[in-house]
Amino acid sequence: MLIHQILMFLVKKGIKVLADDLKVLLATQYAYTIKAQLFHWNVEGSDFGQLHDFFGKIYNEVYGSIDTNAEHIRTLGEYTPGSFERFLELSQVPGQQKIPRARLMIEELLNDTQTVIDLLNRCFESAESENQQGIANFIAERLDAMAKHRWMLQSFLKTERE
User: Fold this and answer.
1) What sections of the chain are H helices per DSSP?
2) How far apart are CA 27 and CA 155, in angstroms?
3) Confidence of residue 10 (pLDDT cuts 50, 70, 90)
4) Angle at 124 between CA 118 and CA 68, to 5 degrees
5) 13 or 73: which carries more pLDDT confidence?
6) How far is CA 158 from the centre of its chain?
7) pLDDT for residue 3
8) Is residue 131 part of a domain?
9) pTM over the 0.85 mark
């Protein structure tokens, strides 16, 4: 009986770690989306049209995954954070209060994309260790999407000589 209780405690602890990782991911996705939208609204320069559309596609794609992430938190028996204050506490992507030049927007979003990818890898490991294949599958799909965003952002930064 004691072994069963210990095992149940460890399972609940592992699920709590996964849920907490997903909460950080949720807040980070929100911050990332807000930043991409800020850049979409405020980009200027000779590549305005292309970057305006590009940033719009990024924030719409990432935003589309937020609800599913929140629902996975709920399936684990936890409540989702839902205030700007809580998101600010949890997010690994810092806000941007200035309007950088277009190239700096791309560089900053590229760095933030890598932050999200690192976090997604941590969430994937947590989901795998807790035998949560549905969540692991969702995270794997998010990793693919973010890798595509990273590739495209890197491509904007390349010069003809590279």
Assistant:
1) 2-42, 48-75, 84-90, 102-129, 133-157
2) 27
3) very low
4) 100
5) 73
6) 24
7) 52
8) yes
9) yes
**What amino acid occupies position 130?**
E
Q: What is the CATH number for 29? A: 1.20.1260.10
In angstroms, the CA 132 to CA 106 distance is 34
Counted domains in the chain: 1
4 domain residue, yes or no? no
Q: Is the pLDDT of residue 9 over 50?
A: no
**pLDDT per residue as tens digits for the range 102-134:** 999 999 999 999 999 999 999 999 999 999 999
**DSSP conformation class of 95:** -
The residue range of the domain holding 143 is 14-157
Is 107 part of a structural domain of the chain?
A: yes
Report the half-sphere exposure of 127 (CA within 13 A, side-chain side): 22
Among candidate residues 148, 11, 20, 16, the one with its CA nearest the CA of residue 92 = 20
